[in-house]
């Protein structure tokens, strides 16, 4: 079952920003975005591709998104391990096409495509003590969502009180450009899959249970994920 604790995670992200440290979720200086094009040519057959070509393709995929409500600059792809670039991979599962599978042990999120393949995204996940596993579903979707710091965070950092009624969506908002809110049995679990602003956070455990994708990856996944989509979080 999913354990409660996302509010702490959201607070950690907001607290990090207020302190000015790169906890992986609030600094938008190297915010990610890009076209919906995938790296499928690099994935299924395990083709041999030069580093130069890989980086060139990644630069296109993780380029700027000037047409967003809050224009998103390109990511510095040198800060992302290439194994976490979006790509199509072989993935055998009994789950239906469209299902989202989170693999926290390997810092990946998969969208099942069917026919033995999946779109794979690099992710950040819960830190030690905040990992969870189980089945959920997307109960709600948000674009540029409002973020409200937990009361516990406001007690630790009184300066966060100015957001007690919510921080509007924007480049500095911890939830980022897109958010998938996870539910179980009709109830919000307080966990999300959200857009991370920090490329260096991908491949690490930093949250209190939420799962972060690079902003352009999150936008790509969000566009292909309807409400009620099944989400499976594997044991770490």
Automatic annotation (TrEMBL):
The keyword rRNA-binding does not apply. Its EC number is 2.3.2.-. Residues 98-234 form the L,D-TPase catalytic domain. It comes from the Bacteria. Pfam families: YkuD. GO terms for molecular function: acyltransferase activity. Pathway: Cell wall biogenesis; peptidoglycan biosynthesis. Keywords: Acyltransferase, Cell shape, Cell wall biogenesis/degradation, Glycosyltransferase, Hydrolase, Peptidoglycan synthesis, Transferase. InterPro entries: LD-transpeptidase, LD_TPept_cat_dom, TAT_signal, Transpep_catalytic_dom. Belongs to the YkuD family. This is L,D-transpeptidase. It comes from Methylobacterium brachiatum.
């Amino acid at each position: 079952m999913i354990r409660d604790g996302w509010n702490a995670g959201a607070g950690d992200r907001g607290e990090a920003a207020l302190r000015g440290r790169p906890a992986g979720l609030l600094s938008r200086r190297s915010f990610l975005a890009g076209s919906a094009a995938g790296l499928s040519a690099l994935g299924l057959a395990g083709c041999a591709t030069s580093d130069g070509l890989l980086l060139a393709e990644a630069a296109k995929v993780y380029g700027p998104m000037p047409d967003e409500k809050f224009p998103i600059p390109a990511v510095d792809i040198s800060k992302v391990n290439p194994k976490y670039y979006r790509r199509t991979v072989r993935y055998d599962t009994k789950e239906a096409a469209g299902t989202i599978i989170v693999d926290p042990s390997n810092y990946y999120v998969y969208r099942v495509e069917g026919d033995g393949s999946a779109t794979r995204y690099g992710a950040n996940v819960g830190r030690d003590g905040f990992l969870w596993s189980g089945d959920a579903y997307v109960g709600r979707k948000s674009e540029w969502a409002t973020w409200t710091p937990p009361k516990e965070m406001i007690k630790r950092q009184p300066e966060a009180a100015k957001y007690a009624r919510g921080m509007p969506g924007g480049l500095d908002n911890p939830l980022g450009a897109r958010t998938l809110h996870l539910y179980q049995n009709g109830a919000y679990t307080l966990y999300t899959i959200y857009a991370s602003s920090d490329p260096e956070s991908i491949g690490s455990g930093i949250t209190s249970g939420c799962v972060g994708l690079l902003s352009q990856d999150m936008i790509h996944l969000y566009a292909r994920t309807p409400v009620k989509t099944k989400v499976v979080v594997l044991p770490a």
